[in-house]
Amino acid sequence: MKTVSREIQEMTIKSLESTFHKLSNAYKSMTEKGSNTTLVEKRRDAIKVGLESVKDVWNGVDFFYTKEEILQSKDILQRIIPSIEKQLVKAKDGSPQKTLNERRVIALKLAIESLETRLK
To answer: Are 60 and 101 in contact, with CB atoms under 8 Å apart?
Structure first.
């Protein structure tokens, strides 16, 4: 995995944690309403694996997932990026939404990179 500054590492971890909490809240809300939670659950779990992967690389946190879980998580994370990039195109320059989504794309790409490294 390429070397990134401590600032980017912290931003990535915060972004992935924020995304994980957002998906966890969505999962809880959808469960209470009786909605289908499959997609949200898969994305939440993939974000968790990616988050723990970067935390392990940068901070030495334990990482214990199987190659199959890593591969599945990497694929799910890769499929999230295009929808965020579509939102980026629509967002106004300098807006909080644009900043949030730019950080989220960077965080996802770094998480994917850390997972790809584990598959080698």
So the answer is: no
Asked if pLDDT for residue 2 goes beyond 80, the answer is no
SS3 content of the chain, % helix, strand, coil (to 5): 80, 0, 20
Give the tens place of pLDDT for each residue, 50-78: 999 999 999 998 999 999 999 999 999 99
**3 state SS for 16-73:** HHHHHHHHHHHHHHHHHHCCCCHHHHHHHHHHHHHHHHHHHHHHCCCCCCCHHHHHHH
Which of 41, 79, 48, 77 lies closest to 64 in space, CA to CA?
48
